[in-house]
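Question thread 4412

I'm putting together a teaching handout and wanted feedback from people who do this every day. The idea is simple: show students a protein as raw sequence, then show them the structure tokens that encode its fold, then repeat with a second protein so they can compare. Below is the first pair exactly as I plan to print it.
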Amino acid sequence: MRLAQHMSIASDHVRSECVEATQFPELSRQYQVMAVPKIVINDRVEFEGAIPEGDFVSAVLQAVNGEGP
């Protein structure tokens, strides 16, 4: 989440939000949160748990390029 926040500060093209899953159960159900952190990018790419920064940046680029499920 920290990298997403840094990216959103660095660029007007990036926005990040952090949501407490226990305080917003409807969002937790919608995004099927089973573990934290749960990262969802443009509703296209998602993953749970911490990942290396390079993998996170790759996931952002994948979502921006319209790839993913």
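The second pair follows. I'd like the answer to focus on this one:
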Amino acid sequence: MSDHSDVSKHIRGYLIIGATLIIGTVLTVLASYIDLGHHWNIVLALVIATVKASLVALFFMHLISEKQMIYTVLGFTAFFFIGLMFITIAAYNDFPALTTTR
């Protein structure tokens, strides 16, 4: 049976992670009002989102205590996600000939 202090420690950790996710959401909204140049705003938003997604996966999905295979799959997923984001950002200004833009 679990000890009360053990459960309290987990609840405290979840509350800290929850507060961190709320702070990350506020930072995302605040960052949208800062003009860093279009590409850097996207990069900043993706960095904040990646940190928040990592916190959710590691703590709420309990991946922080999983075996090596989970980390390997997670690493490949992160690698391909980052690659797709770079392709998306690189293709953002690649318009076909005779395309009108603002």
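Top answer:
Good format. For the second protein you could add a caption like this: Helices lie at 4-32, 38-60, 68-91. The two ends are 64 Å apart (CA to CA).
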